[in-house]
Design goal:
alpha/beta, Rossmann fold, globular, binds adenosine-5'-triphosphate, nucleotide-binding, Urea ABC transporter ATP-binding protein UrtD, P-loop_NTPase, transport
Length: 254
Amino acid sequence: MSIASQHIENPSVLYLDGVSVSFDGFKALNSLSLCIEPGEMRAIIGPNGAGKTTMMDVITGKTKADSGTLLFKDEFDLSQYDEAAVANIGIGRKFQKPSVIESLTIFENLEMSLKGGRSVWQALRHKLSASQQDKLDEILTMIDLQDHQNNLAGNLSHGQKQWLEIGMLLGQEPELLLIDEPAAGMTDEETMKTAELFKQLAKSHSLMVVEHDMDFIEALDCRVTVLCEGSVLAEGSLATVKANEDVIEKYLGR
Ligand SMILES: Nc1ncnc2c1ncn2[C@@H]1O[C@H](COP(=O)(O)OP(=O)(O)OP(=O)(O)O)[C@@H](O)[C@H]1O
């Protein structure tokens, strides 16, 4: 069945079809087609230069595709949106490096991230509504930082900073989360805890997670897409893609 006919029968939260992007004649994305279903967590793996970051860039309006279709929830043509507009319609992106404000507390960082936009000044001067307070409590529990909420973000471990930043994304109430190499630099314990957090998040969000750490991908226990040379090389369970001859040849090595 073609990707187009699957799409009609089962609307996706994210639908890419034939997406290409060239830089000076080099095809970073080469007719890339990919679907994420509502509530799905999808891991994206692939060699350096495969196009993983470029794919996130075209989804979020940072880079314009030369050709192809990019739809969010069947409804939004992502090629028409810039980065701020993409965030507003419900796509949250987390870059590899955490960007929390270290001189503010965990609570203050989360407070500023709430949908509707609160400046540092507003966050310090105005009381939260009951529903905003509930939202922050829910996020703090989800990221397991409720006991640290009044500590400065600068004192957190690398893993905790990553969780705080994920909490800040949740403050924006996204439906789809795009997360770039969350496990990089984490201890083994933090990595496994992050996998558990993502499984919790997947109960109420769709997630696309780019990662190189195979233990982490295994713990996510989700469908995996292997990108290579700007298009999909293989897709399926981790066991299936690891056994794929092309994946062994071009990514995993013999
Ligand atoms: N702005 C740009 N100008 C020129 N070439 C670029 C640009 N952005 C990406 N590329 C090239 O496009 C290709 C895909 O890069 P991309 O960063 O998307 O790969 P990746 O899969 O994210 O790699 P990594 O795992 O190393 O992060 C690479 O060859 C890269 O050099």
